[in-house]
Amino acid sequence: MIEQLLPVVPLLLLFLLGYALQRTNFFSTESLSHVKRIVSDLALPALLFQAFSSIELESRYLILVILIFIVCLIMVVLGHYIGKLLKIHSPYFALMMTGFEMGMFGYAVFVSFQGEAHLGKIALVDLGQVVFVFTILMALMIKHRDGAAKGSELLKKIVTSPVILAIIAGLATSFIAPHVQSSPLWDTLAEMIDLLAQLTVPLIAITIGYGIHIKKELIGKSLKTILARRVLLTLFALLLNALVVDSWLGMDRMYQVALMTMFLTPPPFVISIYMRSDEEGESDYVDNTLSLDTLVSIVAVVIASALYA
Description:
The structure is a single chain. This protein is mainly alpha-helical. It has helices at residues 2-5, 9-23, 29-53, 62-85, 93-96, 102-114, 119-146, 151-159, 162-176, 184-197, 200-210, 216-248, 253-263, 270-273, 280-308. It is globular.
């Protein structure tokens, strides 16, 4: 069991490193915003380009991709009502209820338990939420951060963002690559993109750890968010696995494990990257929730993996 958890340990240590740097005031407010911009405009797009350029999609599984997208959308809507019910007055509560952190958490945890041979299965399961996060969720984040905007202006910001451009380029590459012979130039570009992508995990983890400010009132607020999210998404995962993955599509059981693993991961870490820099209280809430949910997710995935095994 300890050996299975080892792949997640470096991520947790990076959170701790970020927290240690915060205690020494390592970053200024301006320099921290510059680090976040490196992630959002360079490192994360490189990681997404890699993911989408290597994806293999079977047409009969598109229904699962669409349904997962719809679940993510439903969770945003439910989040607005649940936030009022729980008396959590934060514009980020509904956003924290949806989406999954796969690139920097889910894949590592899944592979540690199931092995790299099944990586393609969780990549397929991940597609619907990736599209949701970098279209709908990103639009909501940009609208909140930059203020009200016309539909055309908002669409322009999304379409021209480095993240969306990377996704489009990755999908195009997945169709073109099989018909293009390897060359020194192509290999050099691929290596550069790989180096950029490797910056994503440490930089985001450090910035989240740097933003941790343990306060009693925030811990309670974060735990309420985590519990509400965990209960609803677990129910959705059980329904999708039983009615769609198993009964309807008759997919391999490992797809059920992949789907449950994804639904147990924390909210997308990029939420903390796209926040407004002047929302200190909200930033504390988001970063604390992401950090605490990471620990909860490790335990939840261990239990789920044991049950499905």
